[in-house]
Amino acid sequence: MTELTQATISDEIAQRHADYEARVAAGAQRLHAPFLDFDPYRSSVLRHPTKNPKLVDPETIELESPAFGHRDVADVESDLTAQHSGEPLGERMVVTGRVLDGEGRPVRHQLVELWQANASGRYVHQRDQHPAPLDPNFTGAGRCITDGDGVYRFTTIKPGAYPWKNHVNAWRPAHIHFSLFGNAFTQRLVTQMYFPGDPLFPLDPIYQSIPDRAARDRLVAAYDHDLSIPEWSLGYRWDIVLTGSRSTWFEPEGSEA
Amino acid sequence: MSVALPTPGQTVGPFFRYGVEFDAWNELAPPGRAGAIRVHGVVRDGAGTPVPDALLEIWQADAAGAIPAESGSFHRDGSTFTGWGRTHTTDAGEYEFFTLEPAAPFIAVAVFARGLMDVLHTRLYLPGATDAFLESLTPAERTTLVAERTADGLRLDITLQGDGETVFLAYR
Ligand SMILES: [Fe+2]
After folding, report:
1. How far is the CA of A239 from the centre of ligand 1 (A)?
2. Pairing state of beta strands A175-180 and A111-116?
3. Tens digits of per-residue pLDDT, A173-215?
4. Spatial contact of A91 and A158, defined as CB atoms under 8 Å apart
5. Does this complex have an ipTM over 0.95?
6. DSSP for residue B166
């Protein structure tokens, strides 16, 4: 069995992106979502639907979101550096921004969850076998409720990049997993936030599963010096827009996408 | 509209459990409570293999058909019905929720998994339920959405790809 190299994966990514750009140039709408069928991420091969999704008008329950409040989430849960007796290792940071719907309205009093690797790129998850140290002072999970302007805010440490087994020498760019609820259940979103200028971006089949450059850029937080706290922490700003539209291309039934 | 372009989704990845789990996450109603049913099934991939690392959420009306507006899912008190729950699949690809049967045709279901790039939305219809959307489907498509009544509740398998592929939804 030949080794699956980064060069092969990068070629596959380039091919899919070129196809996308050609279709957009020919008049197809731009996509704001990842491709579900994106073979460079090998685990997706058997896990993506092959049929078009059915286009429906959301109804009843789908037009609402579950309610979360301070009964669910304590204020301290937004500080991932304060969950243990000691301080975690790593670059302390604040990440904050607004959660908006597609009309630009704030998503008020809704749940934001995040989870992440520690500064060494290791998750607490028991199946994470990356031989980097665990940090006894860092679990890496937090929650908060957005305020009346849709603002969320977390204090954490910058996660490290980590290796994975998609192909030989595969590394994930540093990222924080985010889970969001919008003003309707149709707007439910799980995504990942990245850091500006990461040299691993072009190599990563998960990040590159989003074919549209501008859409990919929207997953990258901005360093914001006004958010940095003197002698304490760096600041990143990342706004999140929940529309519920996956803007999928509908393929002719039976065709190979 | 350029004011607010959507933030793209990304896979939930393999290491989500410690980030998203909470006590009694899949117990919208405590098992054993009067009226509590078990909603369960298996998630499979395109080879028919159970998916051991999927994350599922359900969101539903209550037993009177009302849309719950109560918070408290993360600290369930045993009586408040929040209408929302979450669970992961087991190594055998199985999921289960304990809930109340809604007085509504369907329960909304959101599916996430390692290897799945973005959320998939679908519906779990109660046996015998009907609506315009269900009527618009072929019989084969319909069977992927209609749960089967079991001794203790409802069963619906979810197939991400291939034979019996679940009908997933794109919202207008
Ligand atoms: Fe990750």
Report:
1. 20
2. antiparallel
3. 999 999 999 999 999 999 999 999 999 999 999 999 999 999 9
4. yes
5. yes
6. P
Domain for residue B57, yes or no? yes
Contact A35, A209 (CB under 8 A): yes
Q: Could you tell me the two tokens for A41? A: 């991420």
Using alpha carbons, select from A223, A169, A210 the residue that is nearest to residue A35: A210
Q: Is B2 on the interface with A (CB under 8 A)?
A: no
A residues 205..244 contacting B (CB < 8 A): 206-207, 209-210, 214-216, 218-219, 240-244
B65: exposed, middle or buried (Cβ count in 10 Å: 0-12, 13-18, 19+): exposed
Structural domains counted in chain B: 1
Query: In the 8-state DSSP scheme, what is residue B49?
Result: -
What is the pLDDT at residue A245?
72
Domain-embedded: residue B124:
yes
Residue B59: inside a domain, yes or no? Answer: yes
Helix H, strand E, coil C: the string for chain A is CCCCCHHHHHHHHHHHHHHHHHHHHCCCCCCCCCCCCCCCCHHHCCCCCCCCCEEECCCHHHHCCCCCCCCCCCHHHHECCCCCCCCCCCCEEEEEEEEEECCCCECCCCEEEEEECCCCCCCCCCCCCCCCCCCCCCCCEEEEECCCCCEEEEEEECCCCEEECCCCCEEECCEEEEEECCCCHHHCEEEEEECCCCCCHHHCCCHHHCCCHHHHHCCECEECHHHCECCCEEEEECCEEECCCCCCCCCCCCCCC
CB B28 within 8 A of CB B107: no
Please give the share of chain A, as a percent, with pLDDT higher than 70.
95
| pLDDT attached to residue B1 | 45
Among A221, A212, A222, which Cα is nearest to A246's? A212
Query: What Cα–Cα distance (Å) separates residue B32 from each residue in A16, B73, B86, B149?
Result: 51, 18, 19, 18
Q: Which residues of A are catalytic?
A: 123, 162, 172, 175, 177
Query: Which backbone phi and psi does B109 adopt, to 5 degrees?
Result: -130, 130
Specify which residues B44 forms β-bridges with: B50, B159
φ/ψ of residue A194, rounded to 5: -115, 175
Q: Do B75 and A71 touch (CB under 8 A)?
A: yes
Do A33 and A248 contact (CB within 8 A), yes or no? yes
Q: Containing domain of residue B93, as a range?
A: 36-159
The verdict on residue B143 lying in a domain is yes
CATH of the domain at B132: 2.60.130.10
Gyration radius of chain A's alpha carbons:
19
